Amino acid sequence: MSGSTRVFVARLAGVSVFDPNGDQVGKVRDCVVTLLTGPKPPRVLGLIVEVPPRRRIFLPIGRVHSFDAKQVVVSGVVNLRRFEKRQSETLVLAELLDRIVKVNDDTDAQIKDVGIERTRSNDWDISQLFVKRGGGFRRRGETFIVPWNQVTGLRQESPTQGAEELLSNLDGLKAADIADMLQELSPARRDQIAASMEDHRLAEVLEDLPEDDQVEILSALDLERAADVLEEMEPDDATDLVSELDPQLAERLLQRMEAEDAADIRRLLSYDEDTAGGMMTTEPVILGPDATIAEALARVRDVDLSPAVASQVYVVRPPLESPTGRYLGAAHFQALLREPPSTLVSSIVDQELEPLGPQTPLDRVARFFATYNLAAAPVVDENDHLLGAITVDDLVDHMLPEDWRDHDGETDHG
Which domains are present in the chain? Predict the structure, then answer.
């Protein structure tokens, strides 16, 4: 192995991993260590690498040819089976950062980074810890590097631990990546990190977690915070989550939510899960008949909209909140791009695309999307009021097995 002989792990987060031919394999997401008992230093087992499309694999340290804070180069064949954490393993970024330890059995300090070093036998061990003593999240305090053997508390089963350092390392990650990381943690550590996230960020992460994890995390929050997070979620995702909660807890949360948000969820709960009404979002892009192309394009540029929701706008008579006034038609964003900005959207809507009824079953919705190559479709009631829209991602979500987000495959650490 060549390259640096000592690296601080937090600097590896997000670093690209390349094969011997120079092709990118993925990106580093964490480092796996085992906290040995006795005088031996903690041993580095390998790296967690995220490979496309969103799979987190285990890369044994023996497969690493060289690495530093700029790149990691691997040798040999990389096993692409999904990583699953073993009980004896510890994740440096997710589980050691922010941990409170004792330095020289005297003063408390918080781990801010972990230094790993190559040994003469070409193994890698934890050799140093970068710690902070005193201060706080916004106060500087005293930072210094200390040898691993001058620290006690690394092997605590229930450590005192914050989340600020880990959250700072998660800033550049997508919600789906954070969801994958949370599934590798103990329930206590996962709930602690979730509780430290901002409401909007936690809502995004919950939408990418399996239902069981969603329920456990939301149930661990206090009622006011849980209600705030539900309000930040997409109505259809929030409805799916509420439907899995204990009915008494679900009702208490709905009572604490904003009336408008709670009403959307109650309406969606009235439909069977595998119908158009049960799959739809109540917040598509809705415009009045006097809206222009320029206004429509400004709406679909909203970064908070998913690509599927932003793919189509719906024109209705007032009121413009679902259930709306009479539905007039839909326009795909590509059609918007072909027209002058001052043109009225109502003049270019596709009136030939028949909307779906809320009781349309899943199989008919799927055939409808496939027949017309749709990314989204409107749902209206018997009086032609727009109730919402189904997006192709929500359709696929309902067609897949319930546990499709769970990790698959066996773990191979060899």
Answer: 2-86 (2.30.30.240), 93-164 (2.40.10), 171-270 (1.25.60.10), 285-399 (3.10.580.10)
Structure-token pair, residue 7: 């690296």
Give the separation between CA 66 and CA 411, rounded to whole angstroms. Answer: 24
- Note down pLDDT in tens along the chain; length 414 residues: 556 788 999 999 999 999 988 899 999 999 999 987 778 899 999 999 999 888 899 999 999 988 877 899 998 888 888 898 888 899 999 999 989 999 987 789 999 999 999 988 889 999 999 999 886 555 577 899 999 999 988 877 666 677 777 788 787 788 988 998 888 888 888 898 999 999 999 999 999 998 899 999 999 999 999 999 999 999 999 999 999 999 999 999 999 999 999 999 999 999 999 999 999 999 999 999 999 999 999 999 998 898 999 999 999 999 999 999 999 999 999 999 999 999 999 999 998 889 999 999 999 999 999 999 999 999 999 999 999 999 999 999 889 877 665 544 444 444
Quote the CA–CA distance of 388 and 393 in Å, as a whole number.
15
Where helices occur in 199-319 by DSSP H, the ranges are: 199-206, 211-220, 223-232, 235-244, 247-256, 259-269, 276-279, 293-300, 307-310
Tell me, what amino acid is at 126?
I
Q: What are phi and psi of 304, to 5 degrees?
A: -80, -10
- In the DSSP assignment, the letter for residue 321 is S
